[in-house]
Amino acid sequence: MLPEEVQVKRRIEDTIREVYRLYGYQEVETPTVEYLSLFEAKSGEEIRHRMFKLVDVHGRRLVLRPEVTASIARLVATKLSKYPTPLRLGYIADCYRYDEPQWGRRRRFWHGGLELFGSSDPMSDVEIVLASHEVFRRLNILNMWFRLGHVGILRGILGGAGVEIKNQDLILTMLDRKMAAEALSRIRELAGLEAENTVQQLIQLKGGEEIIGKAYDLLSPWPKAVKANENLQEIVGELSSVEPSISFKVDYGFARGLEYYTGFIFEQGVEGVDISFNGGGRYDGLVGLFGGRETPAVGCAIGITRLMGHLLSGMAATRKEEAGVMISVLSDQTRRYALSVAKSLRNTGIPAIVDVTRKRVPDAISLAVKKNIRYLVLVGEKEYKGNTITLRDLSERRQYEVRVDELANLLKTSPNTVMG
Fold first, then answer.
1. Which of 91, 125, 68, 97 lies closest to 262, judged by CA?
2. What is the domain extent for residue 253?
3. Confidence check: pLDDT of 410 > 90
4. What is the pTM of this model?
5. In 203-277, which ranges are continuous DSSP H helix?
């Protein structure tokens, strides 16, 4: 990554960490290299085919982590098993999948996640959405949208018709891949015509909060699906009440590729961009799968790499000036003095770059302009003897002499005050 990319990435990470703090999440780390078996069980067909797999010198089958939620769930099942719940955990981590590199898809990418363990109350689902909304708002991405769904509704129909979990996962994966015709054909084969007709009508329901009521007539023969729909209605109602400005669409045909989801699910994106930037949902069975006690859980994984690409594309024509100054050394005798000036500026929090290549003043000005540095500090014999520096404002094209002990305060004031 180039310097400007790292700068934006750090900004996103700092924003996520600030939201951690505000919502009471504690950050953890998990290994980059994991056991393959951790992700084989419930990661989903697409991820299983895109994992970077390896075998170590002891013959153990390992993988570069393709996502982080499974690792966090294992952590809760083991080292955090005695911690009081609800437990709020966050992470920022690099993940690896064998994708074809393109905009929004890289083989190495970063996620920032929030995971809440120990509560099945709809408030916990709403909290994850609100925290996601807050991250984007703080990044000034205001044209965001949410897509909301509930895999418990489809699982309630399929399970009620006798379809086993493995085949439910396969059907939901088909829907996630926009393979509705294939999914309906498989439902007819495994569950019968009534289930197929119900799902066919259901997955066409998309809209605002009002469409949730329309689903009840379709779901009446399936008690577990009705209960899941009630849960979705509670979550959407609370979300609308707490944050009326959130733009969302309820989508009954919405599914996610990860097989561990058991209830409410969501995606978050930006208007005009086809891919999602964040996704998550409820996964109540994952901690138990890794040997822990059955623990309800909900979380999300914010795509830091995708957000970085989006923010950088908007910054291309509006690159900001770099803070601080560049110091130009005009003679051999003033090198130590120049280093001392730089040190005093840094001690006050002002970045200072010393031109160690000793360019001529016109060339130093040219370099500062290319680096978007507004202020050039000239240090020569005259300045050394008078304990001063010459400050050039390259934006205003003005130059004046100030004492070293006044320089930091001068630079910290507004440009209008400085030049007044």
1. 125
2. 3-315
3. no
4. 0.86
5. 211-219, 223-242
